[in-house]
Amino acid sequence: QVQLVESGGGLVQAGGSLRLSCAASGRYFNTYTMAWFRQAPGKERELVARISWNGGNTYYTDSVKGRFTISRDNAKNTLYLQMNSLKPEDTAVYYCACKQSGIGSYDYWGQGTQVTVSS
Fold first, then answer.
1. Strand pairing report for 92-100 and 113-118
2. Positive or negative CA dihedral for 7, 22, 77, 59?
3. What single-letter DSSP state applies at residue 76?
4. Nearest to 20 by CA among 95, 85, 73
5. How many CB atoms are closer than 10 A to CB 78?
6. Rg for the chain (alpha carbons), in Å?
7. What residues form DSSP beta bridges with 116?
8. What is the pLDDT of residue 65?
9. How far is Cα 6 from Cα 116, in angstroms, rounded to an integer?
10. Please, which contacts does 59-66 make with residues 24 or more away whose CB atoms are closer than 8 Å?
11. Are 53 and 42 in contact (CB under 8 A)?
12. pLDDT tens, 40-95?
């Protein structure tokens, strides 16, 4: 029902920046909690950042706090992840996901976009 498409990944040097985007379909984008996850080779999927339906509440995992910023533009049905001061350990496939606000699991996922940080 809901479709999510990520973009903006690529190859950057340590210390560089990238901005990921996630375009969402549907009329009810402004009712969903949105999140970015990532998965590196040989590791479990990890929650990176989360944002509430109105953008008022955000969460970041400790390893990215102060470097990454999650935001959303409900008028454009788009989620963003600004990534600064990138480190090699940030290398992973990054996924956009959404769920209905409140208690519940993430029901919809994008296909993922590769982020590779060298050095």
1. antiparallel
2. negative
3. G
4. 95
5. 17
6. 13
7. 11
8. 98
9. 15
10. 63/89, 64/90
11. no
12. 999 999 999 999 988 999 999 999 999 999 999 988 999 999 999 999 999 999 99
Nearest to 23 by CA among 12, 37, 34: 34
**Tokens describing residue 79:** 């989620």
What is the dihedral sign for C-alpha 29, 8, 71, 102? positive
* Each residue's pLDDT tens digit, 99-112: 988 878 999 999 99
Q: Angle CA(44)–CA(106)–CA(34) in degrees, nearest 5? A: 100
What order of strands is seen across the sheet that includes strand 18-24? 4-7, 18-24, 78-83, 68-73
Q: Which of 15, 1, 6 is nearest to 83 (CA)?
A: 15
**Partners of 95 in the β-ladder:** 37
pLDDT for the residue 102: 80
The token duo for 118 is: 């060298």
